[in-house]
Inverse folding.
């Protein structure tokens, strides 16, 4: 997934910088069988130390139908947080892909009063340290909307823009600093006294989008997100974009709308609404396919609408039946709460949208074809270890044994992972040497704003500086460039697969997934099918990052530090992704019925070539 909770494509620096200061309190609940510690609502976060082999347990009393926010702040160790009821039934498990630092958040509205339990446990994954710290708090969400002084908003705005200019290595890749300054100053003029956090968000989110880098992200604080989950009212229809048209994919309250085109909400055209969404959602360069997919991914359309246009008690909705062109106007379509909004999404999408494996291989021996799917380039997938290299070795061994002549590589859902795993796979596809990156450039190694970030202590700042210096050198032109020998690509294999290759891509093909597509496009004969990748063909700014918290609004900004420039040729326009040879999308009927149009097209090409 992306973005608000974007996947990191480089983990070396992230790990090197991940350990928390030893000044944190050394409380621990090492034995999982010991009585759980009791948490009191609305208290300041409590700090704990935890070892990799431990699991800490907490108990808390909660009221029926109240909104609560559980926040576990990771400080140097990657954790999974689980919420269970008094009978041990799992209510929710949370592990966002934010590495060893940052919050794990659970929003919860109990259906019954009672005692609930929170467990905190380190993930057993490579590069998770043997010991780390975290804090935990449980808050009841109050129905209070804060408003901010103009001076405070201006201070947050100026900190945001100056930090981006100082730390974001790719800020001038698609725009000049002058253009960034002009755009930022125009946005700054929109600030007003007594704005809410959402009103301020709508001013600064376009600044993040102007970076033209999808690894740069913005999100509301945990408290403000919790407020919207507790009290926000959501658009009840889920949306699928096909050829930039918005199709409804669920019925609601007896309204038969599935498969219809959405044309207006509350008098605003869908084009106007989507234009607003696109203006706050960053993607690499000038790519829009990723934006459309992220707007719909994980049921995000109603969430985008709430952030951009606020809550409504009901909606006026206009639809078109694409089969008859009949126009339908609906008044007073009720808004839904957060729990119902999430339920509607899960019930509306095909099963493979929610549940799918890290990777898989299938064979169609009658046409000597293998279908190799990589949904991640990571060794941890959905909180479980994944032996990526072991799977890849076995897959290509089986491909050789079966004499496969046609290989379909499906990376439509691959948004990256660990740097190096994409070229580990590519090594099985070429026996010729190649250069992966023209260069990797870092910002820093010091930054003036770190007291507002996840590197807010002297110890952390020293480790950050040391880590950047250890992996980079100062070039004669003043750039900090990666040293030779750091994460060198896998060597091409003498027994590499030499048959035909077909690559399936989408707007969700991002970060390491998009780099993989770029490497194939630039170094190997292949046929691309589907949709332009969400990630840039010529590279991205990602890797390690700084998490900036604006001090007044508490809005969180993720700033990537490393600019990866991929060594590829070709005629793809600057600022675009890998553009497929055959642009294929399903019809709405195919999507609703689970028909894989892109895969079917690839198989048809293979059969027609025999």
């Amino acid at each position: 997934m992306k973005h608000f909770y974007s996947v990191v494509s480089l983990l070396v620096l992230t790990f090197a910088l991940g350990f928390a200061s030893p000044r944190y309190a050394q409380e621990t609940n090492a034995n999982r069988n010991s009585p759980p510690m009791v948490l009191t609502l609305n208290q300041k976060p409590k700090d704990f130390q935890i070892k990799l082999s431990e699991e800490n347990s907490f108990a808390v009393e909660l009221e029926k139908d109240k909104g609560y926010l559980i926040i576990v702040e990771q400080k140097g160790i990657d954790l999974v947080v689980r919420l269970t009821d008094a009978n041990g039934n799992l209510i929710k498990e949370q592990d966002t892909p934010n590495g060893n630092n940052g919050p794990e958040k659970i929003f919860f509205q109990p259906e019954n009063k009672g005692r609930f339990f929170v467990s905190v446990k380190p993930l057993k994954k490579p590069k998770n340290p043997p010991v780390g710290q975290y804090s935990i708090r449980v808050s009841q969400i109050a129905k209070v909307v804060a408003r901010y002084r103009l001076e405070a908003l201006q201070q947050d705005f100026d900190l945001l823009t100056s930090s981006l200019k100082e730390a974001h290595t790719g800020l001038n890749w698609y725009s000049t600093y002058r253009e960034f300054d002009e755009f930022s100053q125009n946005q700054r003029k929109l600030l007003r006294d007594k704005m809410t956090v959402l009103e301020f968000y709508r001013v600064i989110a376009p600044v993040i989008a102007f970076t033209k880098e999808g690894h740069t992200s913005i999100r509301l604080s945990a408290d403000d997100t919790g407020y919207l989950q507790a009290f926000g009212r959501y658009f009840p229809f889920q949306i699928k974009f096909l050829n930039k048209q918005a199709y409804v994919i669920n019925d609601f309250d007896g309204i038969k709308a599935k498969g219809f085109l959405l044309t207006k909400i509350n008098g605003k055209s869908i084009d106007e609404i989507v234009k607003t969404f696109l203006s706050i959602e960053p993607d690499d360069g000038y790519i829009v396919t990723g934006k459309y997919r992220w707007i719909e991914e994980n049921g995000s359309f109603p969430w985008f609408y709430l952030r951009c246009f606020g809550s409504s008690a009901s909606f006026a909705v206009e639809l078109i039946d694409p089969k008859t062109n009949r126009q339908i106007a609906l008044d007073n379509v009720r808004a839904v709460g957060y729990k119902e909004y999430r339920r509607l999404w899960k019930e509306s999408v095909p099963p493979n949208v929610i549940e799918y494996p890290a990777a898989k291989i299938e064979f169609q021996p009658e046409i000597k074809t293998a279908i190799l799917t990589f949904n991640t380039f990571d060794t941890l997938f959905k909180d479980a270890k994944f032996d990526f290299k072991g799977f890849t070795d076995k897959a290509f061994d089986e491909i050789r044994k079966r004499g496969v002549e046609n290989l379909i590589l499906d990376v439509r859902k691959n948004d990256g992972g660990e740097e190096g795993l994409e070229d580990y796979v590519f090594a099985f596809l070429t026996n010729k040497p190649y250069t992966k990156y023209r260069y990797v450039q870092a910002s820093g190694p010091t930054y003036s704003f770190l007291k507002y970030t996840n590197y807010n202590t002297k110890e952390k700042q020293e480790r950050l500086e040391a880590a950047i210096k250890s992996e980079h050198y100062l070039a004669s032109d003043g750039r900090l460039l990666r040293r030779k020998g750091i994460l060198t690509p896998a060597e091409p294999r003498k027994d590499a697969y030499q048959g035909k290759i077909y690559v399936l891509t989408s707007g969700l093909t991002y970060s390491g997934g998009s780099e993989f597509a770029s490497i194939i496009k630039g170094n190997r004969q292949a046929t691309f099918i589907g949709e332009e990748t969400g990630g840039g063909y010529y590279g991205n700014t990602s890797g390690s990052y700084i998490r900036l918290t604006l001090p007044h609004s508490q809005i969180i900004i993720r700033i990537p530090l490393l600019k990866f420039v991929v060594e590829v040729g070709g005629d793809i326009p600057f600022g675009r992704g890998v553009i497929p040879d055959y642009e294929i999308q399903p019809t709405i009927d195919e999507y609703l019925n689970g028909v894989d149009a892109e895969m079917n097209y690839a198989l048809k090409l293979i059969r027609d070539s025999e």
The mean pLDDT is 92. The CA atoms of residues 169 and 595 lie 42 Å apart. The longest helix spans residues 150-167. The chain has four domains: 12-140, 147-211, 230-351, 357-609.
